[in-house]
Amino acid sequence: MFGISFSELLLVGLVALLVLGPERLPGAARTAGLWVGRLKRSFNAIKAEVEREIGADEIRRQLHNEHILSLEQEAKKILNPLVQPAQPPVVQPQPAQVPEPAPVHAEPAPAAPVHASPEQVPGAHTPPHDPTQPPRAP
């Protein structure tokens, strides 16, 4: 972890044996081990907390990006009709024009035959064609 080789550890052990003596060396080694364990646990706890915070930041960033993308899609939906070329206006059917009265000195128009059906008589009570409906078959 710290880059200490075996020969360096052996040197530290010999110095500790000379300084502390054989009676106090096991207790000092135990205490040093406890402190090293506590340092490792605190280091791992701090490391886990930092990783959790980084993960939470990434999740927040992803949620923010998804929110921005959804806003962009809504804006495209709103602006899409404005971008598309204008569709031709729907032509409203014109009401049937009433024929002008015939002049007094003109001859009257011949009457339709009595046996003819309304489909055969031109202009006989046919409703105007609705452009939104498909054409009718004759």
What do these coordinates show?
By secondary structure, the chain is an all-alpha fold. Helix content is 57%, strand content 0%. The protein has one helix and no strands. It has one helix at residues 6-83. The longest helix is centred in the first third of the chain and has 78 residues, at 6-83. The chain is rod-shaped and about 145 Å long. The two termini are 94 Å apart. 0% of the residues are buried. The model has no long low-confidence stretch (mean pLDDT 76).
Task: Break the fold down into its secondary structure elements and pairings.
Elements: H1 6-83
Helix-residue proportion:
55-70%
Spatial extent as radius of gyration = 49 Å
Write the H/E string, N to C. H
Biggest sheet descriptor: none
- By helix and strand content, what is the structural category? mainly alpha
Low-confidence parts: none
Beta content comes to under 5%
Number of strands: 0
Spatial gap, N to C terminus = 94 Å
- Silhouette: rod-shaped
Overall average residue pLDDT: 76
- Total helix count? 1
